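Q: Please design a sequence for this.
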């Protein structure tokens, strides 16, 4: 029995002392917060805001993407400080809990947004997204403490794939509410508030296991509270000298995440404006994307550990380029549905691969600090991607196909940067311990 346990321990993708329940509780957070992104950002509230709150005005989409970009900008500025502070004070669980409560409450308030409530709706949408992004970064910083370095892709894939299941559950409940309301002759103004409240409640309920069984990572070297932002600036400067491949990885992630954010935020708009989808078809489309993403994140996580992180990510970026070509050229529904399925596969695999690569290359003593740099890159992409798309649509007088084709350049740039990354060297740099640079006194 002892020999078996020892063999099992050696074969386990988890670090010694980490149990299955703790990993499940970590993955449950992905399950919990995916409902928010699927329902609020991708499918229901964005269309509701443009069509009902803004009454279909031409500036509605610009206002929506502008508010979201502002929220991502806030996260860019604040998350490095919050991440370093969590490292210094062993406050990862506290940060995760606070951001969860904030997102749940802000999502619930969105239920009160009605026609003409432009400022009110945009404020709470931006607030909910800020809290969501902080929680996403906080939960990611637990990954290096759960998985062995050689199994980071597999464990990250568990979380991503489970997360898409949560998104599908939330979207299924939203579709059920919308269908029931539609059969009674009710409009979106009547049933969307119920969907927002249901989404908030599901988020709160599904996140409970994370706070019951997810343990606080070990405390790292403390830094003065007022110096943590300057410390993060130094950490970024350190990547140029001491962690150049981590720096290239961040730039690669920023590029391809810009394209992914466009797909997540504006896929429903593209389907409606270019392919003529109605709300029911759009929800089914997002269902397909989530199913494909769950399969891709789970299955590709194992393949990623086998063939290598860099090669796995390169395959998915090539897949994104094929997807863009299919979607831009689609004139029939089968071709467009094929592009959507491929987008789902690539979405789950590329996001899981990126998070796992950050977990592998981040210095073991400073996980939240370097994951905060990852969050900074992701949020920068979220600011640039949708605004670039919207600007191109405006400049081309509504040509969504041209805007999506140009979006493919983000994936191409990410593939080029990935080719310049030496993963083995990055791992050697990670293992060569260097104390964090101290910010200069002012």
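A: Design:
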């Amino acid at each position: 029995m002892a020999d078996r346990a020892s063999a099992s321990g050696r074969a386990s993708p988890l670090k010694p002392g980490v149990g299955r329940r703790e990993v499940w509780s970590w993955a449950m957070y992905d399950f919990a917060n995916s409902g928010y992104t699927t329902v609020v950002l991708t499918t229901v509230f964005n269309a509701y805001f443009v069509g009902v709150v803004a009454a279909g005005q031409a500036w509605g989409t610009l206002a929506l993407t502008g508010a979201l970009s502002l929220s991502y900008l806030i996260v860019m500025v604040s998350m490095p400080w919050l991440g370093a502070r969590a490292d210094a004070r062993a406050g990862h669980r506290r940060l995760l809990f606070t951001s969860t409560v904030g997102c749940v409450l802000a999502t619930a308030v969105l239920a009160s947004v009605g026609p003409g409530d432009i400022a009110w709706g945009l404020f709470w949408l931006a607030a909910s997204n800020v809290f969501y992004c902080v929680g996403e970064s906080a939960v990611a910083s637990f990954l290096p403490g759960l998985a062995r370095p050689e199994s980071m892709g597999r464990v990250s894939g568990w979380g991503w794939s489970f997360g898409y299941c949560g998104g599908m559950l939330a979207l299924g409940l939203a579709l059920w509410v919308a269908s029931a309301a539609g059969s009674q002759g009710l409009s979106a103004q009547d049933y969307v508030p119920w969907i927002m409240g249901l989404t908030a409640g599901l988020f709160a309920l599904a996140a409970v296991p994370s706070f019951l069984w997810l343990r606080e990572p070990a405390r790292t070297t403390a830094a003065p509270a007022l110096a943590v932002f300057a410390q993060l600036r130094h950490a970024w400067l350190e990547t140029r000298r001491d962690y150049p491949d981590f720096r290239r990885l961040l730039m690669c992630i920023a590029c391809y995440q810009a394209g992914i954010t466009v797909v997540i935020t504006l896929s429903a708009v593209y389907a409606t404006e270019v392919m003529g989808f109605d709300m029911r078809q759009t929800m089914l489309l997002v269902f397909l994307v989530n199913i494909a993403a769950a399969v891709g994140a789970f299955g590709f996580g194992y393949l990623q550990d086998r063939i290598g992180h860099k090669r796995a990510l390169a395959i998915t970026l090539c897949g994104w380029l094929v997807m863009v070509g299919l979607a831009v050229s689609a004139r029939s529904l089968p071709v467009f549905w094929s592009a959507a399925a491929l987008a789902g596969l690539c979405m789950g695999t590329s996001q899981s691969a990126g998070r796992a690569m950050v977990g592998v290359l981040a210095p073991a003593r400073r996980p939240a600090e370097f994951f905060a740099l990852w969050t900074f890159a992701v949020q920068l992409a979220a600011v640039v991607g949708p605004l670039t798309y919207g600007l191109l649509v405006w400049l081309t007088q509504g040509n969504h196909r041209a805007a999506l084709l140009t979006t493919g350049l983000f994936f191409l740039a990410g593939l080029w940067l990935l080719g310049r990354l030496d993963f083995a060297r990055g791992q050697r740099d990670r293992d060569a311990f260097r104390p964090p640079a101290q910010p200069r006194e002012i």
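Q: Thanks. Anything notable?
A: The two ends are 61 Å apart (CA to CA). The chain has 18 helices and no strands.
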